[in-house]
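Incident log, support desk, overnight shift.

02:14 A customer reports that sequence design results differ from what the structure should imply. Their input is reproduced verbatim below. On-call engineer (initials T.W.) acknowledged and began investigating.
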């Protein structure tokens, strides 16, 4: 993306054929044990959840949406392409700076090409909620990982609202979705704690004939609610303990906004973990979003005895944000309660690595949703730990790690690349383990890190990390 201003259709065009197998990808990365601690300051990359939503809402809204700090990761760029294919004008005006001229009252039109979301559950599922509310038809597809993930969780409520979908067997991608100009409002209780399901329903609810209610038994990230309000929709949330009743009124016409994307706590987690595990580390991670629906990992780390503090709390893009000060710490094992899972759902792979270095046992409960992420993250996290010489066990809904504590973690060395099933967070977790281990670690499919954290290697290196091997291009 060399040019300063470029139109998304031409600048980001790419072959439409999805990758058929992820395991054939040969690009590896390796982390040898780091001799000295991480030092200095690094910013967190733009938040992935906020970035997807800013593009989608900007595309639906009337007028101009200006986004700064957008995460320019492969997942988010696929959403940008999809929004352009649906009829909005999407332009990159500088690094992280994007202008979306939304379709407004004219509405989206049927895209000529397949909407290929690559690896992204969030982009694809939220876009299904968007497409459902227009009298159009769109084909959704993705890579082999996304093709294996459940889509019926989103399609079931959208069908109740009046959309129609033809899917591959088992409710999987590829699928064709046909929307309607006016949907039926529904009251829906998602069976799983999922912000993607909630968001798809709310986005469709914008075009429903009344008030649509999502009754969440466990609160999940609320960026859609916050941003929809910012764009002019009427959205009300009622909290009852962990439960959230979210209502959206149909019929609002969204108006373009200016959005400053806050830093992603889920990506910052890898920098934080490396600093906690590598002796001598003392770092500041700046501009991390601190929305309480996302900070479960930081709460857990404090319980584990982490030297982690927050300074300079402010508001960024309508979300609370702050700087994290992190110093090397000897952690101790804890029990992570099931009701915390939604607020740290993407952080369990790196928490399992942190737990491997802790004294005693860490029990992660209520984690069954990890089985249907970019990979089965319980199985893959255990793969990393066992390869590194760490004892762990699982159940349908739990992962238990016996920490090595002061004895330290071996790692598996720099020769064989551990398969990551193309899962970016598994690859980054393996590399952080390698830096803090005795023998180091090598992971396969490391280019997939660019789906969520394209400059992971650069940001880690800016703090003093060194990688024995890394994908050539950082983005
Ligand atoms: C996301 C919701 C979560 C999370 C994903 C981002 C979102 O997925 O794992 O990375 O932006 O709404 P689920 O809704 O499947 O829990």
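02:41 Re-run completed on a clean worker. Output:
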């Amino acid at each position: 993306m060399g040019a300063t201003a470029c139109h998304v259709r031409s600048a980001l065009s790419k072959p439409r054929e999805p990758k058929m197998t992820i395991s054939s990808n040969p690009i590896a990365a390796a982390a040898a044990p780091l001799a000295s601690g991480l030092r200095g300051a690094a910013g967190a990359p733009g938040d992935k959840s906020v970035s997807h939503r800013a593009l989608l809402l900007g595309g639906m809204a009337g007028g101009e949406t200006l986004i700064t700090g957008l995460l320019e990761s492969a997942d988010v760029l696929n959403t940008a392409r999809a929004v352009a294919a649906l009829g909005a004008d999407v332009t990159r005006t500088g690094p992280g700076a994007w202008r979306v001229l939304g379709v407004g009252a004219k509405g989206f039109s049927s895209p000529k090409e397949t909407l290929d979301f690559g690896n992204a559950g969030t982009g694809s599922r939220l876009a299904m909620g968007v497409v459902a509310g227009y009298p159009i038809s769109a084909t959704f597809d993705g890579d082999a990982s996304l093709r294996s993930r459940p889509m019926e969780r989103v399609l079931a409520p959208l069908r109740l609202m009046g959309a129609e979908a033809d899917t591959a067997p088992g409710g999987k991608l590829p699928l064709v979705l046909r929307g309607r100009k006016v949907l039926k409002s529904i009251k829906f209780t998602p069976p799983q704690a999922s912000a993607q399901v909630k968001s798809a329903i709310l986005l469709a609810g914008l075009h429903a004939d009344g008030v649509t209610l999502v009754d969440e038994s466990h609160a999940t990230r609320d960026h859609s609610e916050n941003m929809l309000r910012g764009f002019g929709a009427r959205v009300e949330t009622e909290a009852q303990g962990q439960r959230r009743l979210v209502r959206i009124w149909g019929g609002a016409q969204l108006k373009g906004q200016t959005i400053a994307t806050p830093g992603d706590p889920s990506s910052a987690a890898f920098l934080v973990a490396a600093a906690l595990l590598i002796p001598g580390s003392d770092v500041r991670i700046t501009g991390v979003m601190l929305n309480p629906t996302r900070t479960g990992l930081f709460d857990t780390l404090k319980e584990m005895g982490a030297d982690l503090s927050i300074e300079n709390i402010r508001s960024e893009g309508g979300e609370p944000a702050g700087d994290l000060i992190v110093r090397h710490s000897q952690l101790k094992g804890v029990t992570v309660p099931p009701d915390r899972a939604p607020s740290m759902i993407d952080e369990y792979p790196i928490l399992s690595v942190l737990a491997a270095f802790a004294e005693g046992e860490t029990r992660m409960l209520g984690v069954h949703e990890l089985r249907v992420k970019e990979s089965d993250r319980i199985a893959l996290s255990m793969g990393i730990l066992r390869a590194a010489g760490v004892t762990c066990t699982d159940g349908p809904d739990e992962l238990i790690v016996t920490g090595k504590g002061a004895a330290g973690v071996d790692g598996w060395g720099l020769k064989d690349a551990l398969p990551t099933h193309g899962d970016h967070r598994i690859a980054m977790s393996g590399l952080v383990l390698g830096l803090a281990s005795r023998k180091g670690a090598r992971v396969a499919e490391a280019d997939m890190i660019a789906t969520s954290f394209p400059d992971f290697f650069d940001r880690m290196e800016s703090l003093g990390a060194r990688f024995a091997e890394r994908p050539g291009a950082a983005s």
